[in-house]
UniProtKB/TrEMBL annotation:
Keyword Hydrolase recorded: yes
Record-stated family: Belongs to the glycosyl hydrolase 16 family.
InterPro entries found in the cross-reference section: Beta-glucanase-like, ConA-like_dom_sf
One Pfam family named in its UniProt record: Glyco_hydro_16
The entry's keywords: Hydrolase
GO biological process, one term: carbohydrate metabolic process
Protein name: Glycosyl hydrolase family 16
GO molecular function: hydrolase activity, hydrolyzing O-glycosyl compounds
Occurrences of domain GH16 (ranges): 43-270
Amino acid sequence: MKKLTLIIIGLLCHTMISSCKKETEKQINPEQIVKKTSAIALVSWETVIPTSSFSSFSTYWNNLYPWGSDHNGTARMRTQNIAVSAGVLTFTSAPTSGVGNSVKDPYLPIHYYSGAVHAKAIPIVNDAYPKWRFSAEVQSASQVGTWPAWWITGADSWPPESDIMEFKGSTTTWTNTYKNPSGGWSSQGHVISSPGNWHTYTAYLTKLNATDVTIEYWIDGTLKATHTGANFVGKRFNIILNYQMEGSSGSPGPTGTTYMKVRNVHVQKSATL
């Protein structure tokens, strides 16, 4: 009986040791570690425009709009109305008169000189890079007649367009996507507490299918809206920051000098979803 007991105890110990060995092997399986490491590498971002880009302005940015000095408001953009200091890009809008009308539809009279810039990088959402991230910190004017914006638009044709931040004469910023699947705008307004303080405005564009993208709009780290952008895939985009005046932001605009400030613009792309 004593011998039988010893045999049973020995079998139990062998079973316990085998079980512990298998559990340990399961926990440190090298193949699983390799797979996890590979997955982390696959979702990493590649920087297209670094947060320090304004300190090397001519490397990453061009002055004015891609099409020139005028757009759809009453401000004409000039090199003299932008400046960079300590990594911060400042747009200065100042009243003017006797300049004539804008050369762009709706051909409004020019009431201000202001500033605009566009990136030298031209993003394309495609199979090679199906996911893009656009982020910037902005101090924005918000009184009637001020129209600051941070946006991307078709470089070769319009639409499409994605407005990551657009203030139109109030403390509400707008996230807009054109063209949505129905062929028009998707728009949401978001009230910002103290727009003149630094806030972060971010958009993620993710390839949805052969033609469309999903766009997530984030403000200060919070998801605010999700849109579908039709016919975005394969299109070249201009990246634009500008301080336009009046037009859709109302009139009359400010009688004195006002400012829009931007820092830490960061554009990234990912080879995987």
